[in-house]
Every structure is written in C-alpha cells, then in structure tokens.
Amino acid sequence: MTVTLFIPCFVDALFPRAGISMVQILERLGHQVVCPKPLVCCGQPAFNSGYWDQARPIAARTLELLKDAEAIVIGSGSCGAMVKKFYPELFVGTRHAELAGRIASRTWEFSDFLVNKLEVTDLSARFPAKVTFHDGCQGLRELGLKTAPRALLAEVRDLELIEMSEAETCCGFGGTFATKFPMISTAMAGAKCDSAIETGAEYIVSNDSSCLMQIQGLLSRQGRKIKTLHLAEVLVQQ
Questions:
Q1: Ramachandran angles phi, psi of 104, nearest 5°
Q2: 121-235 adopts what CATH topology?
Q3: First vs last Cα of the chain: how many Å apart?
Q4: Pick from 57, 37, 12: nearest CA to 210
Q5: Same CATH fold assignment for domains 2-116 and 121-235
Q6: Disulfide engineering: 156 pairs with which of 65, 86, 125, 226, CB 3.0-4.6 Å?
Q7: What is the pTM of this model?
C-alpha cells in the first residue's frame, strides 16, 4: 500500500535518524512511502495548552493534506493520539468533523501499524544489547500501546529486554509542561532515569522521541552512560 508517513516536527528537526529508519523499514516491507513536505505539525502544542481556537487552523490544514491518504503512519504516540483521538473532539460541530473522523480511522502509530495492521513482528533485525522500554503517556493511555512495541523487540536477535519498575511512569516532558514546571519535570525525569539505570540496560528505547529527548537530556547532564534510541532505530538494524 501507499503509506503517508507523518514525521513530527521535533523528529524532523532533532531526530531525523528515527524518521529515516521508519522509511527504510516500511520500504523493506514492500510499501511505497510518501512524506509530504507541507505536513509539519499536528497542532498539539496549542491544543495541550488550551488554545483550541489557535490549534484548529493548523489541524485543519493537516486534515486537508491527509484527506486522500490510504494509510497514515505517525512516528510518535503523542502526535498519533492527537490525530487519532483528539482531532474528532477538536472538530465537533464544525465542517471538518466528518473528515476528522475519516482521517482518525486511517491513522496508526508506527509500532501499532506494523503489528496490528500489517501483522508483522519479525523484521529480521539484530541488536546485540540490553535494553529497557519506556511507555510514553499518550501512546500508552490514549492509544493503548503496550504490547505492540514489545512484540517487535521480542523478535530482535541478540536483544535482551529488561523491564524497569517505572516503565509506565511519566518522564516529565509533557510538551509545554516541561517549560511551565521545570523543577517538577526534572524530578519526574530523575525517577524515570533511576529506574532505567537499575535494570543495567545499555539503552532506553521508546516510540516517542519527545520522551527520549527529555530522558537523554538529564542522563547527559548527569554523565550517565546509558543511551536512548527510538524503537525504529533498533528495528532497522541488521
């Protein structure tokens, strides 16, 4: 099929390797991948800050760009939740309501698309390392993403997944939350990092680069050796 890959703005700007890995994986599976250049932001920052009127024009433009897409894959649980769960709510009673519902039904987070749409778990990946997995809040709580990323990691050769006790605990990023409440945000990140380090893992893996940016930022400042990687960056390894 033709997959429209929606690369979140922070992935495009700061973590391009994650986006490139998604393209490579989908193309290896035989799908055509398109990444429309005008598709840059879902409007989540304004939406999450309570500025729904300001979020709608951005979201409406995104809907128009996606209206003919066969399948929409988003490399982020948070942005995926925005399009799939919150667009229908944002456009209730507007002329975009029907389109928002149609787009939501065609939208998948990356790991969810592989496992539950394509029914693929084994990508012939090999990653000889100990990893632990961080569940991003939006992906876990809004999209119900728990088993899909782990099913993919379970098939990676030479990879050992060691679950941390605080896998489902928020990392403290929350988009604008981290800028509004930096001290609380940092304390939350500290709890997450400590839990990951206790596992003895070499890498913290997640399907949300925004969470990994928060976690890696604190780890680097603490001089910790454990590193972070997007799930796609692990699955692309062969």
A1: -60, -40
A2: Rossmann fold (3.40.50)
A3: 24
A4: 12
A5: yes
A6: 125
A7: 0.93
CB atoms within 10 A of CB 54: 14
Closest to 192 (Cα-Cα) out of 176, 209, 168, 213 = 168
Contact between 115 and 57 under an 8 Å Cβ cutoff? The reply is no
Two structure tokens written together for 48: 């999450």
What confidence tens digit (pLDDT) does each residue in 188-237 have? 999 999 999 999 999 999 999 999 999 999 999 999 999 999 999 999 99
Token pair of 148, please? 């899909």
Query: CA–CA separation, 210 vs 173, rounded Å?
Result: 7
Tokens for 121? 């778990």
Is CATH 1.10.10 the right assignment for the domain spanning 2-116? Answer: no
Domains of the chain by residue range: 2-116, 121-235
User: Position of tokens 């896998």?
Assistant: 167
Query: Is the CB of residue 169 less than 8 Å from the CB of residue 191?
Result: yes
Whether 208 and 182 have beta carbons less than 8 Å apart is answered as no
How far apart CA 134 and CA 199 sit, in angstroms, is 12
Q: What one-letter code names the amino acid at 22?
A: M
Give CA 206 to chain center in angstroms. Answer: 7
Strand order across the 203-206 sheet: 157-161, 126-133, 203-206, 227-230
Question: Length of the chain, please?
Answer: 238
H or E element that contains 222: helix 209-222
